[in-house]
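Why this split exists: single-chain examples teach little about how molecules sit against one another. For that reason, every record in the complexes split bundles all components of an assembly together and asks for one structure covering all of them. Below is a record exactly as it appears in the raw files.
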Amino acid sequence: MITWPNFVSQVFNGLASGALLALISSGLTIIYGTLGVLNLAHGAMFMLGGYAGYVAYHATGSFLLAVVVGALFMVVVGAVVERVLIRRFYDRPHEDQILLTFGIGIVIVELVRLGFGSLTLSVPPPAWAAGVTPMGFLIYPTYRIVVLAIAGVALALLYLVLYRTRLGMIVRAGIEDSGMVGMLGINIDRVFMLVFGIGAMAAGFAGIVNAPVVSLTPDLGSSILVQTFVVVVIGGVGSFPGAILGGLVAGEILSLTSMVDPAYSEVMLFVVMTLVLVLRPQGLLGVPGRA
Amino acid sequence: MDSLAIGALRRRTVLRAGAGLAAASALPFGWSHPAAAAEPAMGTWPAGSSGDTVYVGITVPRTGTYAVQGEDELKGYMLAVEHINAGDPLIRAMSPRTTKGVLGKKVAYVVADSEAKPNTAVQAQSRFISENKVILMTGSTSSAVAVALNKLAQREKVLYVAGISGSNDTTGKDCVRYGFRQCFYGQTAAAALSPVLIKNLGKNKKVAYLTPDYTYGHTVQKSMEEYLKAGGWTTVTDQVAPLGAADYSSYLLNISNSGADVLVNINFGHDAVLSIQQARQFGILGKQTLIVPYQTPFLARDVGADLMAGVYAATDFWWTIQDAYPLAKMFVASFEKKFGYKPEWGAENAYMQFALWAGAVEAAGTFYPPAVIKSYEEGRHTPSLVGDVWWRGADHQLVHPVFIVRGRKAADMKSPDDYYEVLETVPGEGVMQAPDAFGCKLGPYT
């Protein structure tokens, strides 16, 4: 049902949901770009972040604190997983790495199920963002606008870290040639651990921020993982700006195509991904040969 | 039952079977169906009922979007098994020949998580058939699962009584000789609910649908559309969303901008909870009247009375009907005593299915599947939790009333569980379509 007000509403909605997808996908793409490991546990980490936020929220009663504590928790989880497991697999074939991260994902999901059960849990949005915001002909939940803003700020911070700091320079150099970075006397092991932590944090942070919009279940990550992969492929594997662009493109596809036939909007995501793979295999902003 | 006949029968069985001597004489009754011993083995018969315990296989969703409803359903089965084995008065009211167990055998169950996925459910039940020799399968909550288990039941010749399943297909296009459904057709819900809606909300309304993308959603949507036409209600949009969608924002924006007066939300389980919560976030519930054609157990508890106030729904059972139905009162009391909360219709459906199965087997006097099926098909009237009910032989659908409920305002609730007011009790007979309306062909007995 394409009307002008509906079109504008859906464009805005695509932006809001796309920004969140961009945030999750940036974590996936940074990890792959730097470590060369495809993290199939990324969806589980998105979900785990939500539960960490849930625990922190109910312990402190503060949404802001829940976001901070949850994000820090995910950095630690990411770093520990990298140090204990992932690191042993850098020299192994990709198949082994995929099996490993897939397995980590299953373990995380089942541990959460063991601890919290299968029933859904909810985190209320902070009181100041609970209502709706009338925007002309469009009524939009205030909290979703807040999510858009938070995701925007988080992406900007990530951008600053990657492009304006020494750490970011090393990470980007690592994406180009990690062997050379190591030879230049930089402790690449520590950088890798940090990168995996930051990647996990991006997913987990998005998970907490998204928790009041959806409700938490242990299976939450599986559908988001698929969408995240599509985003990364559309944007270009290993490219941070690509993840942002891909996220926004995916959000808009899901929203805009729903006006024509909602049953096919998810399918259209894959149609676009296929088109990108055919016309520009490295992705919209990817570099040929890196993936 | 005549004990002399049993004795004679047992001797005959022993003579015929020879090796079956030990097992047969250990039974309290032996084969009570005169023809049984002459029938060839089929499915899990007679292996599944040759010991002193018979197994039923239960697959309910314990994870995913229908987990809450699956757990409730499971509790209904557990209570029914306990009552059957103990010969509880409630079971005996519905299955008068029951003493303890079914045909004197203890009933035990095995459970698996179906995740509301047809493949998972079929795999689990296939395992139960080969490992436990289950003589009865049950459990759904997704009609996609019910339809898949229908097919498995017919192929394996093991009875299947559906759990929650609202699709017209379950006892329509995809009906089978070995499958039975207690809860009503989506069509029946639509036929019972629509006149009440038109009466209360007026004529010529514009309707937006939010429909889960599988057999249940599509058939209920079609039925609602059809019956609402009588009041001049027209469809302005049908938003089809995948089962277990994490976000309904784009669908809800389309609905919000559609100019609809009424939102018919066909989603079930957690999908219903989430989509209603998000509909409020998008400011839709203030503008459009919400209707839930097929009520989801625990919906009101999970979204809260303030969102459910004034919402119309059709349901299989709501606990306050106990004032009119003495057996419902016994059921609500036993259930609440055992599990600590008021049962919703998932549990009621489960309990009814097992009680009616026990009744059908007792009446057949044998576990031999075709004999049990024929016993179901006799159209025997049975007192039940919702009054007098009977099975239609032509499509294996139970005929029972539809309850039309409306959400109460928090201020009008007499107790914390008093979420709905029962507006009307619509007898099932008048609102059910003809058994062949959806192309049901039951298939062979053997």
